Amino acid sequence: MPSSVKYSVNKTQGNEVELPCLKCSGRTVHKALVSAEIRGSDGDRHHSFDWSVDHQIVQCLGCKTHSYRVASTNSEDYYPVSDDEYEYEVTEKLYPPRLEGIKGLGDDTHYLPAKVRQIYDETLQALAVQSPVLAGIGLRALLETVCKERAAVGSDLFKKLDSLVEHLATQQHTRLSRTVIGSWPWRWTSLNIY
Cα–chain-centroid distance for residue 55? Predict the structure, then answer.
């Protein structure tokens, strides 16, 4: 079975493709700034397996951030788009990894306490690289840390969360009472809330 591999540079440079963006938190158009392509074929002229891998540095045309994209396809992965037309399935890997449509807190993570911020960032990374067990552990650690930061009491996580909810509800009620009810008492008394 003879095989052949061909290497080229910048054949897909300038191509535009829709990708999930880290900052825009949705699919945006990205342009390939630099590319390296590998094309291969295994087999003979009657039975061959063809494949391709494109390595690209891409830039979001909206926020101008850069990413690394690897797009691969082969002659066996295709699907019909009409009666006599087919498209090849493209497998993409993006670096840094991301979750489509989830932006996270972005630059606002500096408002979080240091321990909470670290666990939050690592949990998002675990979700982005599709590590659900690590993400689940991260979510549990995040809840435990928030409960500890807010001095929630209880013998297990469930009771600590109940304590935290009560604490936050009391804080919110007190804040609401001081601002809204204190500012416009005639509105609340006319609605017979109290």
Answer: 21
Residue pLDDT, tens place only, 53-73: 999 999 999 889 999 999 999
Is position 158 within any domain? no
> Would residue 167 count as lying in a domain?
no
- Count of domains observed in the chain: 1
* Helix 157-176 × helix 132-149 angle, to 10°: 50
Say if CB 30 and CB 58 are below 8 A apart.
Answer: yes
Domain that holds residue 16: 1-103
Using an 8 Å Cβ cutoff, are 139 and 123 in contact? yes
Q: pTM of the entire structure?
A: 0.60
41 near 50, Cβ under 8 Å?
yes
Quote the CA–CA distance of 194 and 192 in Å, as a whole number: 6
Beta-bridge partner residues of 67: 58
- Classified as helix, coil or strand, 125 is helix
Residue 160 buriedness (CB in 10 A; 0-12 / 13-18 / 19+): buried
